[in-house]
Amino acid sequence: MQLRKTSGELVEMFRAREATVAVIGLGYVGLPLVRAIVDAGFTGLGVDIDPEKIRKLHDGVAYIAQFDPAWFTERLADGRFACTTDFSALGKADAIIICVPTPLTKHREPDLSYVVGTARSIAAHLRPGQLVVLESTTYPGTTTEVLVPELETSGLACGTDFHVAFSPEREDPGNVRYGTKSIPKIVGGVGDAARDIALALYDQIVVTTVPVSSTAAAEAVKITENIFRAVNIALVNELKLIYDAMGIDVWEVIEAAKTKPFGFMPFYPGPGLGGHCIPIDPFYLTWKAREFDMPTRLVELAGEINTAMPAHVVTVCMEALNHRFGKGLRGARVLLVGLAYKKNVGDIRESPGLVLIRLLEAHGAIVDFHDPHVPEIGMTREHPEVAGRRSVAVTPEAISSYDFALIATDHDVVDYAALVEASRLVVDTRNACARHGIVSDKVVKA
Fold first, then answer.
1. Given 132, 374, 413, 446, which residue has the most CB atoms within 10 angstroms?
2. What fold characterizes domain 229-445?
């Protein structure tokens, strides 16, 4: 079976923006991507297995805070965007971009079930002349070793009947400076033709593209970016423990060190890592490295340090509560301030706040949470027991009823001065109080 169009014709189609581009997975990566695709002049198609997301898009209801639902309502009305749970619609697309989760199993090994399931759904409707791009973060080799064989169950051949590329997502939820369109895009293909076709597509959507020699190299780029962050965060987390023992404020040290105009990049300690990328991606490489009998000692040590931080925070809470009031955590009422994994977003994936709730309650504490961006805890793989809990309203009277407040995420909209004023004790894992100019003996840094 021959391609419907030659490689050159596909390139020209993308350059002319005369194509339909489908995005599978309408979450924190896929939703901004499909919007950028439509804004670039393409016809956009969103596909997701969750009918609730599709319903909300059709009803003009936002499920990701930073996106105006009116935009999707308008694009649905003018026909430039469509969304569905029906994978047969993929037959209309010229390019199909996969943006599905790649979590870890309970044994901290790669879980590619979403990628495999999506590939099988695509294969059922794959036609000659299509480009398929994987954006989900994964270990080097996934595209050629997992995705391509699944797609070829269609009876079509990669490189002859259809093309495949890998272009890692680089979304940073809540970042007002860099969004989908303004972040350079890494692109690697299964063969030069696939790379060039994918470049022609992304060149119309983002500020610049960066071609690499293969899909494995592109996969390694994203893994490297996130390991770099994980290792450096682990470093400052360990320095925090060391400097605390010496009576030195690590936050002061970092602020002073970052004045050096070269040779230093600031990273900050916290109660643990969260989000879909940094807590997970390094383990994709350590798993793959075992296939080559290669150790990943530094990466694994960084993971151990970061994973241990929530337990350290709970220890600080116990010590502070005992020192100030002569009581333990059992029966103590705790207000967790900020549940999202990072400031100013509502994303709770892999959030250390969820771990903190579990650890505190294991010690007998009674924990409520307040997060202006998370009105209710949704279902998560690791912490189903807290699903359905709702953010509590905070008033001076309500705050004063808790034994202590624990700042786990430093959202900008929180009134930290009022929080400290009304609290009996505040344990601050983000240096939020000091950054807001609040000096009080009620505040303990953790």
1. 132
2. Rossmann fold (3.40.50)
